[in-house]
Known about the structure:
By secondary structure, the protein is mainly alpha-helical. It has helices at about 10-20, 20-40, 55-65, 75-85, 90-95, 115-120, 130-145, 155-165, 175-180, 185, 190-205, 220-225, 250, 260-265, 280-310, 315-325, 370-380, and strands at about 345, 355, 360, 370.
Amino acid sequence: HRFTESTEGEFLSQLHETGWLYHIQRLLICSNKIADSLDLGDSCLVHCTDGWDRTPQCTATAMLLLDPFYRTIVGFSVLVEKEFCSFGHKFAERCGHQVQGETSYTSDAGVSGSDTEAQQSNTKLQPSPIFLQWMDVVFQLVRQFPRHFEFTTRLLEYLSEEVYACLHGTFLCNGEKERMFEGVRLGTASIWTDVVRAAAKERAGHSSLYFVNENYDSATAWEYISKQKGSGIQRISPNCSSKRLVFWESFYLRHDGDNYSIDFRDGPQQMTKKVSFNPEWERYFDRFVGDSCAARRRELPDMRRRLQNLCVGRPAVAVASASLGKGNSRICSHCRKNLGFFSSRGQCVRCGTTLCNNCAVCSDSESKMCLDCYKLCEWNTQ
C-alpha cells in the first residue's frame, strides 16, 4: 500500500485502509487464547493454510506471553531460530531475496524447495512481510510490558531491517534444508553473535544502551526462569483492544522528513552506564551462551560431512547441465543469462558447463569452475 502526501487525517484514513493494525490485533487475540489454553493445561493445535506464516506468528507470541526466558535477548534469539528459522519460514520468498544459482535437490511434494527453483520454473512468488508483522506484534507487547522484556524496541527495529538487508546468513533461504544445502551455516555469520556481543558490552557499560532495557526486572524474571515460582510460567496478558494498539512510528517513519519522532526517541536512550541484573540470572545466561557456542563448534565437522554428502549426487545434475550448456553455448548454464556474440564466456574444467563471467570462479590454478564444483573441491580439501 502506497501512502500519498496528505494531511494527518488522510494519513490515518490510509493507515486504516491497509488493515495492518487489524491484523496485528487478530494475531494478539489468537495468541492470547492459545496462552490461556496452555496456562490451563490444555493442548493446542495451531495450523494455518500452509503452516509457515501465521502458525509461527501465533505460537511464538504465545510463548512470549507465557515464558519469561523468551523475553530475554538470548531467549528471544532462541525463539526466532526455533519458531521461524528451524520451523521452515520461507524467508527467501516472503522477503523477496534473490539467490543466484541452481537448486537440484528434490523437495517435498507441494512445497517449493528453493526460491531459485521457483524463479526458474516461472512460478509466481508470494512476498509478504510476515516476519515484520510479527516484529510489530512483539513491539506492542514490549510497549505494554516494559519491565518484562530485557530488550528494547531497538532490537526489533534492527532485526526488521536486517531481515531484508541480508548482511547475515540467519534469514537467508526458505528453510533449514536449503540453508544446509547452500552452506549458509558454514559460510556466513549469525546475526545473534553480533546481538549478544553488543548486549554484553552495553550491560558492562562499554557502549551506549541500545538493545538492553535498563528497567528490566531480572530478579522477578529469574524466579520464574529458575522455576522457583510458577513452574517457569510468568503469564502476561496484553490488552488487545484497538484503542491500545499504536502505529510503530519509530520504525515505519525512521526515514521520514519529519525528524520529531527520531529526536524524541533517541534523546533519553543515548547513554552509557553499567546495568546490573540479578547475579544468578547473569551467570545462567553467560553459561547458556558459552554452552551454545561450544555445541556449535562441535557441530561443524558433522555439518561439513553432511554438506559434502549432499554434493555427491550433484555431478549427475552437472552433467545434465553440461549437455544443455554445450548444446547452446549462448546461455549460461548457471544463471540462464543470454550470452551475446561478443560476450565473454568460459567453461567449467570439471563438468564442462558454459559460464558467464559473473558465474565463473577461478580456482588456485586459475582454472575456471562453476560455483558447485568449486564448493565441492573446497569442502573435499577441508
